[in-house]
Design brief:
mainly beta, 5-stranded antiparallel sheet, 3 domains, 40 strands, 482 residues, 50% strand, Immunoglobulin-like, Neuraminidase
Length: 482
């Protein structure tokens, strides 16, 4: 037999083959690296005082896509996005730390914040961190001064030194004829936050002393600056044709509504007779000329129990309406009692109103009832009768005037005209209630509105009206002087 032949390779052959294979792969195969991902971290929120917060983030790995934008976003909600409040720090090519400082956040709010990076793949966010802003302090405000003062306007300056860490702090000026005006008085605001501000005060009256002060208001409360006192110039009238009263005194007023103080004596009741001005207060009547000089004083007879309203009669006799007992008391020019007329038995008894009356011919016409009755008293016989029945009109009747053959009457919100025959015409519907007195000159009626603190001028031809004097203190009686 022929013996079987065997072959053997040197031990180095496999090594050589592996080396050749590796060399071939190195020269011919493409190397595949794993993808690089963006890695982002929100590191910290640090309060720096004065309402500022330092936000710190870090890009650990930029990734394969270029960074187009990065920064921080924050909101009171749990997961803020770039659609909320945001800082934009722009493009970035390298990993590393980045920061932003934010301020002006409202107090006592829980905020969430996180870093973000935007690339071609979208927006990536870091972990959410939370912080709470401290409760705001009261703001600090200073009244700087008043300038450019006219009869009706002035400029007032103020400055908010600190908003108390509340960016919503409101600021402005309040003013009044009394010290320490508040937001319950006239006031006007402008803008928010710290800094200087300027307010134009309007609706002022001539010959008045005013107090103005700055205010600032935030969620912690309202604070005021010091009072600044200023005076408006003296009133300059072109014509002094009307006189009216309010709780501050008696005023002369022209047809344009420009007014000047006549007396500092407050009065609810005025009458003009033969060029003299009668000012009535309780049991006292003071008579003045048109320059404000006292002509005489009259004390009303004590038998006149409650002389609430007055009408001057021919011969300077006076009629006083007692609306608590349905009485009309007639006195002579010295105040001595002549006659007491009882209106008991008139329609809607015991409802006499605190309004003026008028004398037309020999008849005294007064508003006897809150339910719409005008009573006429014959001044020769002192007998009364129903002059006109307006009970179909809703509400009480105010003062009456007579001009060029027609009667004019105010009601709470309306002005009527009527003649000697039955029926009335609605001339105007007013915007504010409690129109109390009326004086007619030509085609215009001048009406006091004590709830509105205004005097209106009403065109009795077409019913249009305008405010000609505002900012009064409960005006009441108005009379035509000349």
């Amino acid at each position: 037999m022929t013996p079987k032949r065997t072959h053997s390779f040197p031990r180095t052959v496999p090594v050589v083959i592996g080396t050749i294979f590796t060399l071939l792969c190195t020269l011919t195969c493409e190397r595949i690296e794993p993808a690089s991902e963006l890695v982002l971290k929100t590191e910290s929120v640090t309060e720096r005082g004065a309402g500022e917060y330092l936000l710190t983030g870090r890009i650990i790995n930029v990734g394969d896509d270029p960074i187009e934008q990065h920064g921080f976003c924050w909101a009171p909600s749990a997961n803020p996005t770039i659609n909320d409040e945001v800082t934009n720090l722009g493009r970035r090519e390298e990993a590393g730390t980045f920061t932003s400082t934010i301020a002006g956040l409202p107090g006592a709010i829980n905020f969430s914040v996180r870093a973000y990076v935007t690339n071609s793949q979208g927006t990536t966010y870091g972990k959410v961190l939370t912080f709470t802003t401290p409760r705001p302090d009261l703001p600090e405000v200073v009244t700087l001064g008043v300038e450019d003062i006219t009869e009706t306007e002035a400029i007032c300056h103020g400055v908010v030194i600190s908003d108390g860490r509340d960016p919503g702090t409101e600021r402005g000026i309040c003013w009044s004829t009394s010290p320490d005006p508040t937001l319950e008085d006239a006031h006007l605001g402008t803008g928010t936050g710290p800094g200087d501000f300027v307010i134009q005060l309007s609706g002022l009256n001539c010959s008045k002393i005013y107090y103005a002060r700055a205010y600032a208001s935030n969620s912690a409360g309202v604070v005021y600056g010091e009072n600044v006192l200023f005076s408006t110039p003296e009133c300059k009238l072109t014509k002094g044709v009307f006189i009216f009263s309010d709780r501050d005194g008696v005023w002369m007023m022209n047809e344009l509504g420009e007014r000047a103080p006549f007396l500092s004596l407050a009065s609810r009741d005025l009458e003009v007779y033969e060029g003299k001005i009668y000012v009535h207060n309780g049991h006292d009547v003071s008579v003045y000329d048109q320059l404000g000089n006292l002509v005489r004083s009259v004390t009303i007879d004590s038998q006149v129990d409650y002389p609430y309203k007055m009408v001057v009669l021919p011969g300077e006799q006076m009629a006083f309406l007692d609306n608590t007992a349905d009485l009309v008391s007639i006195t002579n020019s010295a105040g001595a009692l002549i006659k007491v007329i009882s209106l008991t038995g008139a329609p809607a008894d015991a409802s006499a109103q605190s309004v003026n009356g008028i004398v037309v011919g020999n008849t005294l016409v007064i508003s006897e009832t809150g339910n719409g009755i005008l009573v006429g008293i014959d001044l020769g016989t002192y007998k009364w009768s129903v002059f006109r029945d307006f009970q179909h009109l809703s509400g009480w009747l105010g003062d009456i005037d007579f001009s060029e053959g027609s009667y004019f009457m105010v009601q709470a919100r309306n002005i009527y005209a009527f003649g000697d025959q039955e029926g009335e015409t609605l001339l105007a519907e007013m915007p504010e209630g409690n129109n109390i007195d009326i004086a007619v000159l030509g085609n215009f009626a001048y009406v006091t509105s004590n709830f509105g603190n205004k005097v209106f001028r009403v065109n009795i031809q077409n019913g249009s009206y305008e405010v000609i004097s505002a900012g009064l203190n409960y005006p009441q009686s108005i009379e035509l002087v000349r």
